[in-house]
Amino acid sequence: FGRLCTAGLLSFLLFLNAPIQTFVIPHSHMDVGWVYTIQESMHAYAANVYSSVTEELSKVKERRFIAVEQEFFRLWWDTVASVTQKKQVQQLIKEGRLEFIIGGQVMHDEAVTDLDDDILQMMEGHGFLYETFGVRPQFSWHVDPFGASATTPVLFALAGFNAHLISRIDYDLKDTMQKNKKLQFVWRGSPSLKSQQEIFTHTMDQFSYCTPSYLPFSNRSGFYWNGVALFPDPPKDGIYPNMSLPVTKETVHAYAKTMVENIKQRAAWFRTNHVLWPWGCDKQFYNSSVQFNNMDPLMKYINQNSKEFGVSVQYATLSEYFQAIYQSNLTWEVRGSEDFLPYSTEPYQAWTGFYASRNVLKGVARQASSKLYAAETLFARYRISFPDGPVAKDWALDKLRALRWAVSEVQHHDGITGTESPKVADMYLQHLLQAMMGAEELLAALFLLPHNLESPSTLADVDQALEQHVIIYNPLAWNITTIVNVTVTQPSAAVFDDDGQPVPAQIQGSAHSNATYDLFIVVELGGLQYRKYLIKFSENSKAYEAKAVSFERRSAKDRAKAGRRLLPVLSECYELLFDQDTNLLHSITYLEEKRRVMITQDFWEYDANGDVKAGPISDNYIFSANGSAVRAYKAVEMEMIISGKIVTEIRQYFYREESDKDYAYSITTRVPECFGTKLPCHRLEQTYSLGPLSLNTEVVLRTSTSVKNNRTLYSDDNGYQMMKRTYRKFTNNTLARNYFPMVRTAYIEDDLSRLVLVSDRAHGVSSQTDGQLEVMLHRRLWNNLQWNLGYNLTLNDSSVVRPTLWLMLGSVSATSKLYQREAVQLQHRPVVMPIDQPRKCLPHRGSPLRSVVLPPNLHLLSLSVPGWNYCSNHSVHLNLHSQPDYDRILLRIMHLFEEGEDPELSKPVTINLKEALQGMGEVKGVEERSLTGTWDIASLQRWKWKTRTRDDNFTVTISPKEIRTFFVHFVSRNF
Ligand SMILES: *[C@@H]1O[C@H](CO)[C@@H](O)[C@H](O)[C@H]1NC(C)=O
Ligand SMILES: *[C@@H]1O[C@H](CO)[C@@H](O)[C@H](O)[C@H]1NC(C)=O
Ligand SMILES: *[C@@H]1O[C@H](CO)[C@@H](O)[C@H](O)[C@H]1NC(C)=O
């Protein structure tokens, strides 16, 4: 328990007699998606929120409002706001009465988002706010995400925030914290960064972000005088459903009494004499004159009788509340790097289903993010090297901005979570796919247009049927050797690099189609480099033609015979054994230590209940298993594409019934076999196919091993840090409450071995039995809960999904060096671009780009041309340049390792940015910035005073888990 310092004690004693100071914070929770599309929401209420709030705040100077989701605000600002309203907004911001909180495009989800995208969506909003108003949000308001990640407070601290606010945490935990006055604490979200990036955190009490709606004297909706938003059109007469009784002479006392009682109830849960009283809820304040015109007299009445009530009330922004807490000078308890995941609201309400809801949307969101990363890095390189090149900069920035916007939007806590209605999921997908096409156009232009106009390449005629060109780009700042697959229509081929040298390749029939072939090419690429490869199709070509061997279908009943006829697949790292009597994986030996681990993988199904009368149901949000999982198949077939050349591919098909013609699930495993090359051999690539599922099933891939993990597993928070997940027994719902989110990585381990999975999208993970790691890959549900039916949130998802996991096995110390980089490499696989018309446009021979390589423990988190028009210097930044700044490059570098994780790789790294970036151009200046770019790091003084030694101009030292952000200026090169 924290001690009170003398000043705190004094003020505490003074507070005993003072009325409770209540901060009434007007807000509207505006989901960027969920049940209604963004356009529908803008039309029905969102635009009216900002129009009417602007008008109402301008009328009375005590009134306040906090604006949270920037996407709606920007749409209003750009497409609705009049010149007068814009002037009023500028004034309100200046007076601190309209305050931007969080400042991101959305209130992002915390469980299934990746830090890349969390940073992006914040930067997108922050850049807009800073260049438009010169303001930098400093407080968060994460009132609705389903559980709280330990990465979020770290990111907010890095962005310069002074306090963080959360709400949805386990109901029993919140209860205890409330009773013990521990809802507020200082959170050290990263075990490596510790106090350096700690942040004060406020947990909302049990009333959360909505005003209590119960009024003893009325059956209406409480303090919501404007009623409930109406879709699709707002009512013509301004009369909304459920508008509460007006505050009048007759009702004011009853209202005041209800409000005061609520305030006093809440005050008892906090250590200071201040109460945060959020006034608002979902879709509120679209008719804010009614809101304020009733609240004004109510508050006046309470204040006139404040002695008697023991309460005073005032309109406030969030910063005014936190200022008061900060000034109380109390000493706070520290919370370490544990998160608040998973999240339950009631005994049978574990919000662990959404970790796996809408696998397709989760996958496309991540693909879009990596496409954006590739396009950003390549465009940044292009701008530095060819400032006058033919790719028009404003056209390019438009393409990038569209994709930044789409990727930001889907991070909403009812977006990538899969907890939205089908039409809203389609909206996100459409925005993402359209913007991805734009980014592909940009990539093609960057690859294909001659870089300067002087040297058009001359090319000999080629016969398109016999040749194909492919450009392969490595978007990471590390040199890589990897296998790339290209789909071709010819059964034999030879591959050459841009020096005309033959490249190792392998060709085989595709698993998905009889008409196409998979061509695997071993590519070696420098950091941020691309190369052109030539594929020649001919009878006597050089690529090794791999042959398929099929194994008889085996019944799951024959498991008893397992272990007698084992088929080995050997690579430089592993010996995998497949069992011919079950067609399942039997074991993997990691050769470095000659240690064998028994491993079987197959699919299991949870049977979900859809009838509310029969018990707890599963839906978009909630996983509520109706008993343990059952084996999802009766027979298995196996096919092996044997090569011994580049990869061996094992395809396993799982049939629901022994005689079924079509399989229900499949696993394709690729084992790299390139002996004696630089190709990493520890990576076993697996792609699965699932669906369409039968109704009310939730399918897991179960990896059962001899690892003695005691049901403990590790899974990541937002791809940033690993969390230890110890199995816990609960009075009820133990199965579902032991599910955890996996964004990039999950592993199980014992003293000797660790089995790691890295993922291309988020899933739910659990270890229900010793040695097991199960990943929930897909769900299809329906239920008859009225609320779910009304909003169309039953998750009847009939899609076929094809997620990818990479699997690694080894000693704890060997895998500790690998998994962070593997997770990044899976996220940022090389970009493969086949060129259809090689004659028309082809880059000149050889890549014009030199490689850019960072040390293995540093990851290039971002390299982009943000295109903001503000000056770096805060005091003059609003002297707007009318043009975006195309020459300011944003660079963000992250140390991938935790302190003590690896003897070498966990060390702080000192690099000279001028040298590290010389492959790109000549650096003339570097400015260190806050995470989202808006603060010069030297002028950033967060509320807790912190120190950091300044580095010289170009040399920086990056410590474990640090993320550092820079503006880099290059010497301009004009050709
Ligand atoms: C807390 O400390 C600050 C600065 O020392 C001081 O201005 C303020 O009055 C103190 N607040 C209380 C409640 O003692
Ligand atoms: C390469 O293989 C992956 C995994 O099977 C697949 O998703 C992808 O579409 C393939 N790429 C090409 C270009 O065929
Ligand atoms: C990366 O590859 C480039 C060639 O593409 C080579 O010049 C450079 O030395 C390599 N760097 C490292 C650190 O391996």
Automatic annotation (TrEMBL):
<dbReference type="GO" id="GO:0004559">
    <property type="term" value="F:alpha-mannosidase activity"/>
</dbReference>
<keyword id="KW-0378">Hydrolase</keyword>
<dbReference type="InterPro" id="IPR037094">
    <property type="entry name" value="Glyco_hydro_38_cen_sf"/>
</dbReference>
<dbReference type="InterPro" id="IPR027291">
    <property type="entry name" value="Glyco_hydro_38_N_sf"/>
</dbReference>
<keyword id="KW-0732">Signal</keyword>
<dbReference type="InterPro" id="IPR028995">
    <property type="entry name" value="Glyco_hydro_57/38_cen_sf"/>
</dbReference>
<feature type="domain" description="Glycoside hydrolase family 38 central">
    <location>
        <begin position="349"/>
        <end position="432"/>
    </location>
</feature>
<dbReference type="InterPro" id="IPR013780">
    <property type="entry name" value="Glyco_hydro_b"/>
</dbReference>
<dbReference type="Pfam" id="PF09261">
    <property type="entry name" value="Alpha-mann_mid"/>
</dbReference>
<comment type="similarity">
    <text>Belongs to the glycosyl hydrolase 38 family.</text>
</comment>
<dbReference type="Pfam" id="PF07748">
    <property type="entry name" value="Glyco_hydro_38C"/>
</dbReference>
<dbReference type="InterPro" id="IPR011330">
    <property type="entry name" value="Glyco_hydro/deAcase_b/a-brl"/>
</dbReference>
<dbReference type="InterPro" id="IPR000602">
    <property type="entry name" value="Glyco_hydro_38_N"/>
</dbReference>
<dbReference type="InterPro" id="IPR011682">
    <property type="entry name" value="Glyco_hydro_38_C"/>
</dbReference>
<dbReference type="GO" id="GO:0006013">
    <property type="term" value="P:mannose metabolic process"/>
</dbReference>
<keyword id="KW-1015">Disulfide bond</keyword>
<protein>
    <recommendedName>
        <fullName>Alpha-mannosidase</fullName>
        <ecNumber>3.2.1.-</ecNumber>
    </recommendedName>
</protein>
<keyword id="KW-0325">Glycoprotein</keyword>
<dbReference type="InterPro" id="IPR011013">
    <property type="entry name" value="Gal_mutarotase_sf_dom"/>
</dbReference>
<keyword id="KW-0326">Glycosidase</keyword>
<dbReference type="GO" id="GO:0046872">
    <property type="term" value="F:metal ion binding"/>
</dbReference>
<feature type="signal peptide">
    <location>
        <begin position="1"/>
        <end position="22"/>
    </location>
</feature>
<dbReference type="InterPro" id="IPR015341">
    <property type="entry name" value="Glyco_hydro_38_cen"/>
</dbReference>
<dbReference type="GO" id="GO:0030246">
    <property type="term" value="F:carbohydrate binding"/>
</dbReference>
<dbReference type="GO" id="GO:0005764">
    <property type="term" value="C:lysosome"/>
</dbReference>
<dbReference type="InterPro" id="IPR050843">
    <property type="entry name" value="Glycosyl_Hydrlase_38"/>
</dbReference>
<keyword id="KW-0479">Metal-binding</keyword>
<dbReference type="Pfam" id="PF17677">
    <property type="entry name" value="Glyco_hydro38C2"/>
</dbReference>
<keyword id="KW-0862">Zinc</keyword>
<dbReference type="Pfam" id="PF01074">
    <property type="entry name" value="Glyco_hydro_38N"/>
</dbReference>
<dbReference type="InterPro" id="IPR041147">
    <property type="entry name" value="GH38_C"/>
</dbReference>
